[in-house]
Design a protein that fits this description.
The chain is of the alpha/beta class. The protein is about 40% helix and about 15% strand.
Length: about 260
């Protein structure tokens, strides 16, 4: 996955309004909500999960809409909820939240059963995932511009590594990334910061010259825990610009607001 570009890496200044990130050599991207449209992608996954869960609970009176809302998707607006949990919390947390919701409704399910359903849906979805992958507006141009300047690119996601690779290939962006790390890459949970530490180490780049670009507080938390001082959060996912700003990170509305020198 680590690509040898055979060219000297250059330093880049990345400007966002009055904020300038100096001497950047390595950019870490989040996937959902930053590179791909998370509403389309995760909305379909939640629909499929709900279908299987309803089939398992065929004798219950639980409504599909309530089940989808519990996972963080509003089928009316076809948008992910700003407070998640989907796409904002890791898989184990989503399973725990959903299991508690079902148990509160008097249904005798446990985390192991829900995990099994999630795994089945994931296996069935991956071969068809291309139909639900769309790029965030402007991200392809930014990725290409960064690589033109020989900036090292990593992608770190709470999704699986194979899902991330599939998404990038669908968007014709896979070749631009030097490293891809998912929840199954053995680095620990994203918000722990360990995947970002691993990325810097594998690509041999200093944390001070690394920039994290994401769309959620988890991305900012990852950078903080990894000791990376540079983060930009973009309101291209499910969280508003105001709520992102409350994290203390530098924020913007669109990735197209970034300027390179």
């Amino acid at each position: 996955m680590i690509d040898d570009w055979k060219h000297k890496l250059f330093l880049m200044n990345i400007r966002l309004g009055a904020n300038i990130f100096h001497d950047i050599r390595h950019v870490i991207f989040d996937k959902d909500g930053t590179v791909i449209d998370s509403h389309i992608y995760w909305g379909e996954i939640i629909r499929r999960r709900a279908t299987k869960i309803l089939s398992m609970l065929s004798e219950s009176n639980i409504q599909r809409e309530d089940l989808e809302l519990a996972m963080g998707f509003d089928c009316i607006s076809e948008k992910l909820l700003p407070n998640g949990p989907i796409a904002l919390k890791n898989r184990e947390e989503v399973i725990s939240i959903l299991t508690c919701f079902l148990q509160f409704r008097g249904l005798g399910v446990n985390c192991i059963e829900i995990e099994k359903i999630f795994s089945q849906v994931h296996a069935e979805f991956i071969p068809k995932s291309d139909d639900f992958i769309e790029a965030i507006d402007g991200v392809a141009q930014v990725v290409q511009q960064l690589k033109t300047r020989n900036i090292a690119l990593s992608l770190i996601t709470s999704d699986s590594e194979i899902a991330a690779i599939s998404a990038l290939k669908k968007l014709n962006l896979f070749e631009y990334f030097d490293l891809i790390l998912g929840k199954d890459s053995g680095c620990g949970h994203k918000k722990s910061g360990l995947p970002a530490v691993r990325a810097c180490k594998l690509l041999n780049h200093k944390k001070a010259q690394t920039l994290v670009i994401g769309d959620a507080p988890m991305d900012y938390q990852m950078a903080l825990n990894a000791g990376i001082p540079n983060t930009i959060l973009i309101a291209s996912g499910q969280i508003s610009l105001r709520d992102l700003a409350s994290t203390g990170s530098v924020v913007c509305s669109t990735i197209k607001d970034l300027h390179f020198t």
